[in-house]
C-alpha cells in the first residue's frame, strides 16, 4: 500500500453556541452577522486524519475540502492549521439565496473530487449541526460503491484494512473493511486540538485551490424547495417549587405521576 | 329563481365541504391512488423492533397503501408478527442471514431492487442508527435527496422537520419522484400490534456482496424501559460530579418511577454514563410523559433532544440555569439532597 490519501470535507456553519433565529420572512435562519465556525463533527474528522499520521500510519496527504461562500476559506485555513496539507474550495454563489447545495449535490461533487485526487479514505462528520441531515457520507459511499462506517468512535488502520468501532442504538459495534472507504465521525472519536499561532501562520502559506461548480461535471441542483422556516412553538413558562413535596404534588397535578 | 338559489347554495356547500377536508389528498386524488409506501422494519435476532413501526404509522398518515419490508435470517416469524399490525397491506420479507446486521453495503441494493420491483413512491424508515446508516445510501442509489427525521406530513410531497438542533422548523417540498424519508419515532406513535391480518410475500434478493465485514458488538444490557420509547425518563448531567454518584442516585430514582435513564453529553463525556444514554441533538430524541432531570444546565444541544416531552421537571442548584426556562416544574436546590429525598417519597407512595 502506497499510503493514505485522505479527503476531509468540512462545512462552515453557525457556531454551535449561538442560538439561531428565524428571519422575519420565514424563509431561512438569519445568518448575517452571526458567528460561524467549522462544523464540530468536521473538526473531529480533521483531528482523526492528523492523528492517523501521528500514529505512524503511512499518510501521503490530507486534503481539506469545502463547498460554500467565500468565507468558507476561513475554515479551510483552520483545517490546515490543524494539520491538513492543502485545501480545495468550491465557491458557491450565495446571491440567489438558493445557492446552498443539498447533501446529494455535495456527495456528487465529492465523488468528482475523490476521483480527481485519487483519495482512498474520506472522513466526514456524521452530520452538520445546521441542517442536521446526516446523509452526505453515506450518499458518497453509495455513489462510489465503497464501504462505509458511520458514527465512528474508534478507527484503526492496519495495512489496507480498517477496523472501525461505531456507535449504534444501545451500544457499539465493530466493522472491518478494506480501503477505499468512507468514515463518518461521532463525538467520542477524539478531542480536536486547538490550532497554535505558529501553525495558523504556516497554514496561510499552504496551497488553497479555488474552484467553482462549473469546474465539475454533473447536475448538483436542489431537489427540495423550502416552503417555510418557523420558530418552534415555545414552551409555556413553568413554575418553581419550594421543595420536593411541592414538586411531587405539582407533577401529580400535571398528570405526570 | 328558487332553483338558482338552490344551485348556489349547493355550490357553496360543496366548496365548503372541499375546504373542510382534513388533508390535501382529494385535490390529488389521481396521485393518491398511485401513492404506495414501503416501510422498512428493523429486526434483531428474529424479533421485530417495535419502534421501527413508526415508519408504518407515518405511511398511514400519507394515505395510500403501506407495504412493510423486513430482511434477515428467520424473518418469516418477524413477518408473521408484523402481519398483526393494523394498516399494513402487505409484508415483503427476504430470508437471508447476510442482512442480519443491517450492513448498508448489501442492504441498500436489496432495498433498491425491491423498491423498483414494487414501484413504491415513498420509502420510510425510523431515524434510528439503522435508518440513519442505511437510508441515505438507498436515496443516493435512487438519485433522490432524502428528507431526514421528519416530525409531520403536510402532503404527499411536503414534510416538516427540525433543523438547527430543533431551534427552527423547516417545511420542505420534494420534487423527487421517489421520496426517501426517515421519521422521528416520537412524532409517529407505533400502531397497535394486534388485530391486523396481512399478506406475507417473499421479496427479491439480489444477493449483493458486502465488502464490509461485521466483527462484533457490545450492547449495554438493561432491564429498564427503552430510552427512546419510555413514558418516563430521568436524566442526569454534569452536576452529579462522578460515575459513582450517577450510579447511586439515578437508577434508584428511575426504579421508583419505572423510568428509563438518560444523560446529558457532559455526563457521557465525563464518563458518568454510557454514551447510548445520551439525550440531545447528537444523541437520542425523547418525548416522554415526564422528563425529570437533575444537574443538567440545559444547553441548546440537550434541549433539542427532550423539549417535546409532555412535562419537564428539573432540579438544579443554579436558579438561572436555562433548563428552568423550559421546565414545567423547577426545584432550585442541591441534587445530592433533593434526589434521594424525591426517591424516598416516591417509593413510599
From TrEMBL, chain A:
Its main location: mitochondrion. Heterodimer of an alpha and a beta subunit. It is found in: Mitochondrion matrix. Belongs to the ETF beta-subunit/FixA family. SMART domains: ETF (SM00893). One of its GO terms (molecular function) is electron transfer activity. It comes from Zopfia rhizophila CBS 207.26. Residues 26-220 form the Electron transfer flavoprotein alpha/beta-subunit N-terminal domain. Keywords: Electron transport, Mitochondrion, Transport. Gene3D superfamilies: HUPs (3.40.50.620). One of its GO terms (cellular component) is mitochondrial matrix. This is Probable electron transfer flavoprotein subunit beta. Its cofactor is AMP; FAD. The electron transfer flavoprotein serves as a specific electron acceptor for several dehydrogenases, including five acyl-CoA dehydrogenases, glutaryl-CoA and sarcosine dehydrogenase. It transfers the electrons to the main mitochondrial respiratory chain via ETF-ubiquinone oxidoreductase (ETF dehydrogenase). The keyword DNA repair does not apply. The keyword Metal-binding does not apply. Binds 1 AMP per subunit. Binds 1 FAD per dimer. InterPro entries: ET-Flavoprotein_bsu_CS, ETF_a/b_N, ETF_b, ETF_beta_N, Rossmann-like_a/b/a_fold. GO terms for biological process: amino acid catabolic process; fatty acid beta-oxidation using acyl-CoA dehydrogenase. SUPFAM superfamilies: Adenine nucleotide alpha hydrolases-like (SSF52402).
Automatic annotation (TrEMBL), chain B:
InterPro entries: DHS-like_NAD/FAD-binding_dom, ETF_a/b_N, ETF_a/FixB, ETF_alpha_N, ETF_asu_C, Rossmann-like_a/b/a_fold. Residues 191-214 are annotated as: Disordered. Pfam families: ETF, ETF_alpha. CDD domains: ETF_alpha. Keywords: Electron transport, FAD, Flavoprotein, Mitochondrion, Transport. It is found in: Mitochondrion matrix. Residues 37-218 form the Electron transfer flavoprotein alpha/beta-subunit N-terminal domain. GO terms for biological process: fatty acid beta-oxidation using acyl-CoA dehydrogenase. Binds 1 FAD per dimer. The keyword Flavoprotein applies. FAD binds at residues 238, 264-265, 278-282, 295-302, 316. The keyword Mitochondrion applies. GO terms for cellular component: mitochondrial matrix. Its cofactor is FAD. One of its GO terms (molecular function) is electron transfer activity. Heterodimer of an alpha and a beta subunit. Belongs to the ETF alpha-subunit/FixB family. The electron transfer flavoprotein serves as a specific electron acceptor for several dehydrogenases, including five acyl-CoA dehydrogenases, glutaryl-CoA and sarcosine dehydrogenase. It transfers the electrons to the main mitochondrial respiratory chain via ETF-ubiquinone oxidoreductase (ETF dehydrogenase). This is Probable electron transfer flavoprotein subunit alpha. It comes from Zopfia rhizophila CBS 207.26.
Amino acid at each position: 500500500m502506497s499510503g493514505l490519501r485522505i479527503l476531509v470535507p468540512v462545512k462552515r456553519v453557525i457556531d454551535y453556541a449561538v442560538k439561531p433565529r428565524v428571519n422575519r420572512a420565514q424563509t431561512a435562519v438569519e445568518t448575517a452577522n452571526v458567528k460561524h465556525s467549522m462544523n464540530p463533527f468536521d473538526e473531529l474528522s480533521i483531528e482523526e486524519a492528523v492523528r492517523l499520521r501521528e500514529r505512524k500510519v503511512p499518510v501521503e496527504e490530507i486534503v481539506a475540502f469545502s463547498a460554500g461562500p467565500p468565507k468558507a476559506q476561513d475554515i479551510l485555513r483552520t483545517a490546515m492549521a490543524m494539520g491538513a496539507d492543502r485545501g480545495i474550495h468550491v465557491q458557491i454563489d450565495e446571491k440567489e439565496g438558493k445557492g446552498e447545495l443539498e447533501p446529494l449535490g455535495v456527495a456528487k461533487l465529492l465523488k468528482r473530487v475523490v476521483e480527481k485526487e485519487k483519495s482512498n479514505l474520506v472522513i466526514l462528520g456524521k452530520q452538520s449541526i445546521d441542517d442536521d441531515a446526516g446523509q452526505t457520507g453515506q450518499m458518497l459511499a453509495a455513489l462510489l460503491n465503497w464501504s462505509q462506517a458511520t458514527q465512528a468512535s474508534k478507527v484503526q488502520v492496519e495495512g489496507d484494512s480498517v477496523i472501525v468501532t461505531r456507535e449504534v442504538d444501545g451500544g457499539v459495534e465493530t466493522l472491518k473493511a478494506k480501503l477505499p472507504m468512507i468514515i463518518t465521525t461521532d463525538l467520542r472519536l477524539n478531542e480536536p486540538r486547538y490550532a497554535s499561532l505558529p501553525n495558523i501562520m504556516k497554514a496561510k502559506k499552504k496551497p488553497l485551490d479555488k474552484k467553482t461548480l462549473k469546474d465539475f461535471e454533473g447536475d448538483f441542483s436542489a431537489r427540495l424547495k423550502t416552503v417555510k422556516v418557523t420558530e418552534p412553538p415555545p414552551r409555556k413558562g413553568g413554575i418553581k417549587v419550594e421543595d420536593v413535596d411541592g414538586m411531587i404534588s405539582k407533577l401529580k397535578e400535571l398528570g405526570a405521576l | 329563481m328558487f332553483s338558482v338559489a338552490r344551485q348556489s347554495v349547493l355550490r357553496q356547500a360543496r366548496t365548503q365541504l372541499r375546504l373542510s377536508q382534513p388533508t390535501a389528498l382529494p385535490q390529488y386524488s389521481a396521485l393518491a391512488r398511485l401513492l404506495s409506501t414501503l416501510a422498512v422494519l428493523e429486526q434483531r435476532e428474529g424479533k421485530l423492533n417495535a419502534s421501527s413501526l413508526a415508519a408504518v404509522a407515518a405511511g398511514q398518515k400519507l394515505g395510500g397503501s403501506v407495504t412493510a419490508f423486513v430482511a434477515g435470517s428467520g424473518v418469516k416469524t418477524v413477518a408473521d408478527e408484523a402481519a398483526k399490525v393494523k394498516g399494513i397491506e402487505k409484508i415483503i420479507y427476504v430470508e437471508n442471514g447476510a442482512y442480519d446486521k443491517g450492513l448498508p453495503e448489501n442492504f441498500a441494493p436489496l432495498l433498491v431492487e425491491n423498491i423498483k420491483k414494487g414501484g413504491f413512491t415513498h420509502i420510510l424508515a425510523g431515524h434510528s442508527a439503522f435508518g440513519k446508516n442505511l437510508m441515505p445510501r438507498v436515496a443516493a442509489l435512487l438519485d433522490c435527496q432524502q428528507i431526514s427525521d421528519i416530525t409531520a406530513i403536510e402532503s404527499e410531497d411536503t414534510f416538516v422537520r427540525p433543523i438547527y438542533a430543533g431551534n427552527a422548523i423547516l417545511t420542505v417540498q420534494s420534487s423527487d419522484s421517489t421520496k426517501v424519508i426517515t421519521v422521528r419515532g416520537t412524532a409517529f406513535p407505533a400502531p397497535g400490534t394486534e388485530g391486523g391480518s396481512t399478506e406475507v410475500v417473499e421479496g427479491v434478493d439480489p444477493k449483493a456482496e458486502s465488502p464490509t465485514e461485521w466483527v462484533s458488538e457490545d450492547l449495554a444490557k438493561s432491564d429498564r424501559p427503552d430510552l427512546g420509547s419510555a413514558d418516563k425518563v430521568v436524566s442526569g448531567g454534569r452536576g452529579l460530579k462522578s460515575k459513582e454518584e450517577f450510579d447511586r442516585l439515578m437508577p434508584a430514582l428511575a426504579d421508583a418511577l419505572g423510568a428509563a435513564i438518560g444523560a446529558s453529553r457532559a455526563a457521557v463525556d465525563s464518563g458518568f454514563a454510557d454514551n447510548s444514554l445520551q439525550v440531545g441533538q447528537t444523541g437520542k430524541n425523547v418525548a416522554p410523559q415526564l422528563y425529570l432531570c437533575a444537574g443538567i444546565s440545559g444547553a441548546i444541544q440537550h434541549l433539542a433532544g427532550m423539549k417535546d416531552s409532555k412535562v419537564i421537571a428539573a432540579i438544579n442548584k443554579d436558579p438561572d440555569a436555562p433548563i428552568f426556562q423550559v421546565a414545567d416544574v423547577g426545584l432550585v436546590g442541591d441534587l445530592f439532597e433533593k434526589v434521594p429525598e424525591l426517591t424516598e417519597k416516591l417509593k413510599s407512595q
